[in-house]
Specification:
The structure is a single chain. With about 80 residues, the chain is an all-alpha fold. It contains 3 helices and no strands. It has helices at about 5-15, 20, 30-70. The longest helix has about 40 residues, at about 30-70. It is elongated and about 75 Å long. The model has no long low-confidence stretch (mean pLDDT about 80).
Length: about 80
């Protein structure tokens, strides 16, 4: 069995110093981020709309193909 207490002591002794773990970074420029977010939101809406539309067309054509080739029997006229 491994000596877990010795392993924990070894890990505690080899921990990096605070200066190595935490470093100071430059303050971000929030004005540039706001402009990028507006562009991403507007284009994201269009991409989502056309993606959903394309997905619905592909799904409809797939179901129609399966129905026409009798892989998917739909008895819609028999419903009461």
């Amino acid at each position: 069995m491994p000596d877990f207490e010795a392993l924990i002591r070894h890990q505690q002794l080899k921990q990096p110093t605070t200066n190595k773990r935490l470093k100071v970074v430059d303050s971000p420029n929030f004005e540039e981020e706001k402009n990028e977010e507006a562009i991403i939101r507007q284009s994201g809406l269009l991409v989502n709309f056309f993606g959903g539309f394309l997905g619905s067309v592909i799904g409809t054509l797939t179901i129609l193909f399966l129905y026409m080739n009798e892989y998917l029997p739909l008895d819609l006229l028999k419903l009461k």
